[in-house]
C-alpha cells in the first residue's frame, strides 16, 4: 500500500490507532484468507481490493468529491444505490463489523446493544473509518428499534444524518410508505447534489446496479456444484466488497471470476473434496471484518455454499424492472424491488423461510446454520420459528448466537463440529 497518511489526516483519522487497525486487519486477512488452499486466481483482485480498502478506494472517493460528486454512506440494503447513481453520486457501505471502540460506544449506549450498532459508533468515535469521514450524507434506517433510537444519539456525531423510515408489514400500506420514503430520499439527493433525477439518469443507475446483482446471482448459482469451486469465506468476501468497490469494476471482476469458476465446475475442480458437508448460513449480516463464524465452519470439515443474509442473497437476488418510461414508473419499479427484501423487521415474514428452503434445495445443502448477533432481537426472535419450520421440513438447523469477539470461538467450534457429525449421519 502507498503512503496515504496525508489523505487520512485530511479526513480527521486517528493515524496511530488506524495504523494499528490496518496491521491487525492485514494479519487476520493473511491468516484467514491467504492461507486457504487452491483458491481461484480471480480472487487476487479481491485480495488487492482488501489491501487497498482504506487506501486507493478512499483516494478514488476523495477524487470524486473534488469533482463535485456527493458521497452517500449507508448501513443497510434498503438504501437504493440506483437513486444515488442517478445523481452521479458514490454509494458506500459503512464500517460496522469489528469490536473496535466499544468502550467509547458504551459511554453513549447500553452495554447490551448489538455489536453492529456499537461498531458503528466505535468506528466513528475512534476516527477509524475513512469511509464514514468521507461521506457528505450518511443514511440511517429503522430496521430495528435499536438502530432507530441509536440514530438519535449518532446524529450529532456526523456531518449530515438522514434517517429513512421503513414499513414493517408487507401490505399495500407498507409499500406506499416505502415509496414515499424513496420519494423523499430523491428530494434529499437532488438538493445535496444540485442535480435533477431524469428518466435517463435513473435508468442508467438501475442498469449499473442490475448488472452488479446479475454477477452476484451468477456467483451464487455456480456454488451449487460439488465439489464447491469457491469457499464460503471467499464468497462472503465478495459480498462484502459489493458494498465498497466501484460498481462497474466490481461487476467486471465478479464475471471474470465466474468464468473461471464455471470452468472449474466443468473440470470437477473444487476448494474442498467432493462430498464435503455443505451448509447455508442464515440470519444477520456480516460486515467487514466479521469473518469469525465462516472461518470456524470451514475449518470444521464443512463448506458454506450460500448466505441467506443482507450480505448475501437477501441483498442481491432481485433485479429492478427497467421498463418504465417516466421517473414515477421507475420509482414504482425500485419500490417493488426493495419491498421484496425479507428482512426480519417485517412481521409476519414467511417469505424468508421459503427462501431458505429454496436455497437448501438449489444449492444441495445438508443443513442450515442460523447466525444471530447477541441482542439483535428481530433475528434472535425469528430464529426459533425459522428453526422449527426448517426442521419440520427435515432440514437440520443449528442456531448460534454470538458477537464480534473471539471469546466464544472454542465453544462455537465444538457446537459446529457436533452439528457436522449430525449432518453426516443424515
TrEMBL record:
Domain of life of the native organism: Archaea
Entries under InterPro entries matching the protein: FldB/FldC_alpha/beta, YjiM-like
Pfam families assigned to the protein according to its UniProt record, in alphabetical order: HGD-D
Similarity comment: family membership: Belongs to the FldB/FldC dehydratase alpha/beta subunit family.
NCBIfam families reported for this sequence: double_cubane
PANTHER family recorded: 2-HYDROXYGLUTARYL-COA DEHYDRATASE, D-COMPONENT-RELATED, DEHYDRATASE SUBUNIT MJ0007-RELATED
Protein name: 2-hydroxyglutaryl-CoA dehydratase, D-component
Source species: Methanoregula boonei (strain DSM 21154 / JCM 14090 / 6A8)
Lineage per the UniProt record: Archaea, Methanobacteriati, Methanobacteriota, Stenosarchaea group, Methanomicrobia
Amino acid at each position: 500500500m502507498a503512503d496515504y497518511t496525508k489523505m487520512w489526516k485530511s479526513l480527521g483519522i486517528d493515524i496511530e490507532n488506524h495504523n494499528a487497525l490496518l496491521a491487525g486487519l492485514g494479519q487476520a486477512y493473511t491468516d484467514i484468507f491467504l492461507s486457504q488452499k487452491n483458491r481461484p486466481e480471480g480472487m487476487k483482485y479481491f485480495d488487492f481490493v482488501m489491501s487497498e480498502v482504506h487506501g486507493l478506494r478512499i483516494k478514488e472517493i476523495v477524487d470524486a468529491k473534488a469533482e463535485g460528486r456527493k458521497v452517500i454512506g449507508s448501513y443497510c440494503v434498503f438504501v437504493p444505490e440506483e437513486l444515488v447513481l442517478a445523481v452521479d453520486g458514490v454509494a458506500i457501505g459503512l464500517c460496522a463489523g469489528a469490536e473496535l471502540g466499544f468502550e467509547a460506544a458504551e459511554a453513549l449506549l447500553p452495554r447490551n446493544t448489538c455489536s453492529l450498532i456499537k461498531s458503528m459508533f466505535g468506528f466513528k468515535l475512534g476516527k477509524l473509518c475513512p469511509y464514514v469521514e468521507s461521506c457528505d450524507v450518511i443514511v440511517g434506517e429503522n430496521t430495528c428499534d435499536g438502530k432507530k433510537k441509536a440514530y438519535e444519539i449518532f446524529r450529532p456525531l456526523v456531518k449530515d444524518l438522514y434517517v429513512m423510515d421503513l414499513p414493517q408489514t408487507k401490505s399495500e400500506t407498507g409499500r406506499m410508505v416505502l415509496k414515499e420514503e424513496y420519494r423523499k430520499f430523491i428530494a434529499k439527493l437532488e438538493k445535496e447534489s444540485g442535480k435533477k433525477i431524469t428518466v435517463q439518469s435513473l435508468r442508467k443507475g438501475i442498469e449499473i446496479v442490475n448488472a452488479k446483482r446479475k454477477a452476484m446471482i451468477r456467483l451464487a448459482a455456480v456454488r451449487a456444484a460439488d465439489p464447491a469451486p469457491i469457499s464460503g469465506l471467499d464468497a462472503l468476501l465478495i459480498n462484502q466488497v459489493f458494498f465498497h468497490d466501484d460498481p462497474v469494476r466490481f461487476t467486471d471482476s465478479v464475471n471474470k471470476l465466474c468464468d473461471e469458476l464455471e470452468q472449474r465446475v466443468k473440470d470437477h475442480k473444487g476448494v474442498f473434496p467432493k462430498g464435503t458437508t455443505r451448509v447455508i448460513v442464515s440470519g444477520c449480516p456480516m460486515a467487514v471484518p466479521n469473518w469469525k463464524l465462516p472461518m470456524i465452519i470451514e475449518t470444521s470439515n464443512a463448506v458454506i455454499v450460500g448466505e441467506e443474509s443482507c450480505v448475501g442473497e437477501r441483498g442481491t437476488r432481485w433485479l429492478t424492472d427497467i421498463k418504465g418510461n417516466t421517473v414515477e414508473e421507475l420509482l414504482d419499479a425500485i419500490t417493488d424491488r426493495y419491498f421484496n427484501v425479507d428482512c426480519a423487521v417485517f412481521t409476519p415474514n414467511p417469505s424468508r423461510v421459503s427462501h431458505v428452503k429454496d436455497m437448501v434445495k438449489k444449492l444441495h445443502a445438508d443443513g442450515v446454520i442460523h447466525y444471530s448477533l447477541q441482542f439483535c432481537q428481530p433475528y434472535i426472535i425469528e430464529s426459533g420459528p425459522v428453526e422449527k419450520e426448517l426442521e419440520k421440513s427435515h432440514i437440520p438447523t443449528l442456531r448460534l448466537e454470538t458477537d464480534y469477539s473471539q471469546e466464544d470461538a472454542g465453544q462455537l467450534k465444538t457446537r459446529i463440529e457436533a452439528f457436522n457429525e449430525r449432518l453426516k449421519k443424515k
